Amino acid sequence: MQISPDEGWFLVEVGNSGYSVVSAGSLVDMARPPTHPEAPEDATDFEWKILDNNHLIGQADLPSLDTEGLTAAEVESLPPRDTLIYLYTISSNTMTPIQVDDTLSRPFHITGVTDGQVELLHYVTSEIFGAKIVPLPAQ
After folding, report:
1. By C-alpha distance, which of 23, 58, 30, 55 is closest to 44?
2. Separation between Cα atoms, residue 44 and residue 37, nearest integer Å
3. What does pTM read for this prediction?
4. Smallest Cα–Cα separation from 132: which of 98, 82, 97?
5. Residue 41 pairs with which residues in a beta bridge?
């Protein structure tokens, strides 16, 4: 369970990549973020984290394609080929893909969020680095 910065709601993992945003005051479900990206089809289920009082940041991975001749355990230990990031807006129940800067080392795992700063862990090198979510101007 994760608690929003304003302590008005909390994010609960309900199993099988399901999450629920629950009001702290009434304990009523406020939202159910998506459990899987619409595309690509081989993307994994989301892992959501609280970004701020109205947003979640979600990560899905694209599994490695180099699995021929490997056992299931060996396939499981391979790092993903890429990481997909999404922003979920609670108030509008909408999900938007986030364009990841090409200078960020990939694939990575979101390990935490503090004041809009996202902490990332590189899957292969275990390097920890940070990134900021910056809205792009409307075009």
Report:
1. 58
2. 8
3. 0.87
4. 98
5. none
CB count, 10 Å around CB of 96? 11
Backbone angles phi, psi at 74, to 5 degrees: -65, -40
Tokens 């979510």, located at residue: 133
Tokens of 53: 């009082």
Place of tokens 């304003």: 6
- The one-digit pLDDT tens for each residue of the chain (139 residues) are 899 999 999 999 997 779 999 999 999 999 999 999 988 889 988 999 999 999 999 999 998 887 888 888 887 778 899 999 999 999 999 999 998 888 888 899 999 998 778 999 998 898 998 888 776 665 5
Token duo for residue 26: 């009434």
Distance CA 109, CA 84 (A): 10
List, in order, residues 6 or more apart from 62 with CB less than 8 Å away.
40, 42, 43, 44, 80, 81, 82, 83, 84, 107
